[in-house]
Amino acid sequence: MEHAEHRHTPAGTPPAQRERPAPGADENPAGSPAPGAGAEPAENAAPGPLPAPGSAAPTGRQNSAPALRAVCVLAGTAAVLSALALGCAAALCLRLWPLGSQAENTPGGALAAGAPAQQPAENDSPASLPGLPESGPPAQQSAADPPAAECPAGAYQQLWPELYVTPPRTVEPAEKTVYLTFDDGPSANTVSILQTLAQHDAKAAWFVTGGSIAGREAELCAIAGAGHALGLHSSTHDYKTIYASVDSFLADMAALSAQVAGLTGVQCALVRFPGGSINAYNAGLYQPLCAEVLRRGYRYYDWNASAQDAVSPQRSADEIARRVIDGVHANRWSVVLLHDTKSHTAQALPQILETLAGEGYTFAALDPSVPMVSFGYGD
Fold it and tell me: Residue 313: pLDDT band by 50, 70, 90 thresholds?
């Protein structure tokens, strides 16, 4: 390694480590006397001994040459060692930098003074994160870090491109409008319910389940053919499965949507979450789940009146009718929860229709232009 051509001395370098001329170089500029050579003697100095005849008089330059050479050799050796030490220190810093950067981004890592903690975006590359240069070292994953999720948060937005509808403009319903909605069908009661509705010139909506459709495809088509609304309830109706994640719910929803469309040609735009939009199974999930359903253009509906026919299988038809009528009276317009699978509900339906129609109520099929009826967190 050559050092003679580099004359820059870093600030703060100790004198012993500063570069010196190469061994054998003249330390004095040309034309200047060497120390002790050519100096004027003192005026009263006694003359020294004369040299022997024929010998040259010794000079200070000749006497100091061996010492100067030794000093230069030592200085050069020190410069080489200093350069090697600086190189090793720089290499060690570069080696440790990625580990230090990683530690700063962990919960126990130190943050720069005055710099707030920042959460990186999901798809940010290391070069775009705060505190790292554009050409910084690649991100490293600690052995203690969990493996990356197969479907990170938000990735479901790119899935099921067929699961989109265009919502209509919201229109406020007329006062005393009743939207009867039947969950979990079709069932053995569907034909009876359809006949009762037809006799009273009433329309309703069915939030169907995939498991109930198998073997009752004719009833499903009869619902759509009579002008009633079809909505998506669940393909499996398995709470633990569908509410495991947003992805799980959307997968279930997509399967049911394709099933209904394939049999009836109806592209459903109505959704009813099993158990309602907020329940014990989706308490930690309902916000992103409801937001994603709405983002895809669907409208989901809870209810503001209920037959409570699924709460107790022993409820009589009279009790079911009374609960529905009382619930409707409490609202300007109502979305009523009933269950297609309950025989007592089918038996209570004539009393519900006759009583409310006699009070000036009308029965319409729910559609996406109706303002959503949805639970609040405290409901």
Answer: confident
